Amino acid sequence: MDISKGLPGDLFGGLTAAIVALPLALAFGVQSGMGAVAGLYGAIILGILAALLGGTRTQISGPTGPMTVVSSAIIATEIAYFGSLEAALPAIVVTFFLAGLLQILMGLLRVGQYIRYMPYPVISGFMSGIGLIIIITQLFPLVGLASPGGPLTTLFAVSSAVNHINIHALLLALGTIATIYLFPKITKTIPATLVALVIFTLLSIFLKLQVPTIGDIPQGLPELHLNAFSLMEWHDPALIIFTALTLASLGAIDSLLTSVVADNMTRTQHNSNRELIGQGIGNAVAGLFGGLPGAGATIRTVVNIRSGGNSRLSGIAHGLILLFIMLGAAKYAGLIPLPVLAGILITVGVGIIDYRGLRDLRSIPRADMVIMLSVTLLTVFVDLLQAVGIGMVMAALWFMKQMGDLTEEKSQGHMLPENKLVTLPDEQKWLSGHEEQVYIQHFHGPIFFGFIFGFNRIIREMPEVKTVIFRMENVPYIDQSGLYAFEDALTYLRQKGIDIRFCTLQAQPRGMFESIGLIPNLISPDKIVERFGDLTPLA
């Protein structure tokens, strides 16, 4: 439904986003192990602060699938160590708070601009892995049983659960899933998740079904856990810092990808670094109140924009509406059956999986396919941040190999008459009568560490000549590896008494050469010309 921009649109967009966010916040809170109220706290606090201080005007923030999966693992680890949620709470609060601080630091260091360089196979594999984790970990709640743990543990335990299925729970969950997928065919005005939540909660209450429910939800405003820092036992500082970094990194990726979606819909440009600062402040404060960390939520952001949300006020309204609902209806939310929330989460997991990437597996380059599948499996069965890190390394190595091979292929030597390569017209005229005494090496592309093997081969196989000319007009960049490779090559050629000349040395490579003294120590400035035709004729 589209309505005019301005205050009415922001209020309606915020209301609609809050209605969509409510069941998800409850479900994510339950999945995390901290309780439904933690999801509400996170959605309210992060939703308001990120909207107010972030860099994307129409973004709706709150607990998301990926962030909840990581939070659940952190919470489970701390509870396993301390023995109970109450004892582990200080460590959990500090971890979430630290994650927010790290996001603020990312924004101050302007890390946001680098998120765009993440390769699609890594993003695709990661999101598909997150979707599978959500689906797998909800298999037991789907049938009315407590989840045994992570994905691998759950899969191993599935056979033992077959004889303990709660048929009422299963029917509620299946009805929830069917409603979420079928109700939009009737109307999209009312969010299907809310319809499913209300219908099957009421059905469970009126039929007095014996299924697990959310249970008591604390009413009133959340407690501020400032004493967490003094009560916390720093049993493993490295683990706390690493898990906080995992959350911060994932939240940054999740939020900025949603910011790009919002930009495409509103024809605006978000401020990525401000967005990270806003998300960081929101997550830090939410953590202090015992709320789940979150990020920019794509579905809620899209709903907000389509409903008329056009400014920060829509995100603030979304958070305030959730606050009013929590204060006035918390006791009723405790009656929601866990199988209904499991059904909602399974549809979330199904929606996160990247079907486009999976559909095109046979068509994309084999290396991309391997990266995508590797990241998916590592995400599900090992660790999310490690999956992204390994995927980035694999993608970078593959890219470097491709670029190195391409640069080597195009960077050809020109010497007459031994080889058959055609020289450029300006070279033919200049070489007249000296063809066997001169070797001209053309470079095409950056000279970086991925090309060093090929560069060394070029120098090693260079024929015996009196003069070597390096044509650099197509070299916009040279890194430290390339710089030192050139230093070694020039030293070697000078030792052999070869005259070295450079043609069209661009600003960045020249600056690098000058910075370590290659110019003038190994290359005399008068041996560097702007155009090939400016070279001094050979004697």
Describe the structure.
With 539 residues, this protein is mainly alpha-helical. A five-stranded mixed β-sheet has the order 3-4-5-6-7. Strands 1-2 form a two-stranded antiparallel ribbon. β5, α21 and β6 form a beta-alpha-beta unit. α1 packs antiparallel against α13, α3 packs across α4 and α5 runs antiparallel to α15. The protein is elongated, with a radius of gyration of 30 Å. About 1% of the residues have low confidence.
Layout of helices and strands, plus pairs?
Blueprint: H1 7-32, H2 36-53, E1 61-62, H3 65-82, H4 85-108, H5 120-137, H6 139-142, H7 151-161, H8 167-182, H9 192-206, H10 228-231, H11 237-266, H12 272-288, E2 295-296, H13 298-306, H14 312-333, H15 338-352, H16 355-359, H17 366-381, H18 384-410, E3 413-414, H19 425-431, E4 438-444, H20 452-460, E5 467-474, H21 480-495, E6 499-503, H22 507-515, H23 518-521, E7 528-529
Parallel strand pairs: 4-5, 5-6, 6-7
Antiparallel strand pairs: 1-2, 3-4
Helix pairs in contact: 1-2, 1-3, 1-9, 1-13, 1-14, 1-15, 2-12, 2-14, 3-4, 3-11, 4-11, 4-12, 5-15, 5-17, 5-18, 8-9, 8-15, 11-12, 11-13, 17-18, 18-20, 20-21
